[in-house]
Amino acid sequence: MARTLSVQKLASIADAATDEFGRVGYRRTRTADVARLAGIASGSVFTYVQSKEALFHLVFVNGFGRLDDLALPLATPSAGETVALIENGLRSIPSPNLRAALAIDEPRDVLAELRGIVEERYSILEGHWRVLRVIERCAVDVPELEAFYFGNLRVGSFGQLARYLDRRASAGLLRTMPDPAAAARIVSETITWFAWHRREDRDAHVYDDRVARETVLAFVCAALVPEGCG
């Protein structure tokens, strides 16, 4: 029972840390503020983590579902360990629909294919937005994270979608755009705002989650798929 209670408390601390790092960034986050959000005494944080660096590491251990079987207090990570955890966690998130689309020259149903890709990206962002917010807020304070996330992962993600749009447009299956890279960015930013960024806005409650998702899917597909294709 004690171990269960420890895991539950550790999860609440991880959730509080996720909110605080995601709100103010790495440098401005204070362990005392995380403790307050978690409903524990300030010094009690160090019963569970050795340091602020370990607290930051805990955010991603929890975010990628690896909270069980930790030795407490969680040790301060070695240099590069947290960025490696983030890299492995993000790269392990599956995106089979886009991969499958890039592996073939022509689908039987391009509308279903595109819808599957958009829905896949929407689900990824909707399911991981809190962790992604921490990464984006804190990257400016962690150069290795900045290089991986903004210089590598996002570039690759946009590039894959741009290649897909360009290939299907070249085959006459999707509308031709002046710049496939710009089109991919428009699609990505639309998905990102509704799946993630709107949740940080004061008017987030205006949009129903299910209806917002379906509207994005319908909008992107209507914009890119010519009439009669499918």
Characterise the protein shown here.
It is a single chain. By secondary structure, the chain is mainly α. The protein has 2 domains: 2-77, Arc Repressor Mutant, subunit A (Orthogonal Bundle), CATH 1.10.10.60; 88-224, Tetracycline Repressor, domain 2 (Orthogonal Bundle). The protein is built from 9 helices and no strands. The protein has helices at 2-24, 31-38, 52-63, 81-91, 96-102, 110-138, 143-170, 180-195, 209-224. Helix 1 crosses helix 3 (52-63), helix 6 (110-138) packs antiparallel against helix 7 and helix 6 (110-138) packs across helix 9. The mean pLDDT is 94.
Q: What amount of the residues lies in strands? A: under 5%
The biggest beta sheet is recorded as:
none
Q: Distance N terminus to C terminus?
A: 55 Å
Mean pLDDT: 94
Overall 3D shape:
elongated
Number of strands: 0
The appropriate CATH architecture of the largest domain is Orthogonal Bundle
Quick one: CATH class of the largest domain? Answer: Mainly Alpha
Rg over alpha carbons: 20 Å
What is the domain tally? 2
Oligomer: single chain
Proportion in helices: 55-70%
CATH topology of the largest domain: Tetracycline Repressor, domain 2
CATH superfamily of the largest domain: Tetracycline Repressor, domain 2
Number of helices: 9
* Sheet/helix structural class: mainly alpha
Q: Uncertain segments of ≥5 residues (pLDDT<50)?
A: none
Q: What are the secondary-structure elements, in order, as H or E?
A: HHHHHHHHH
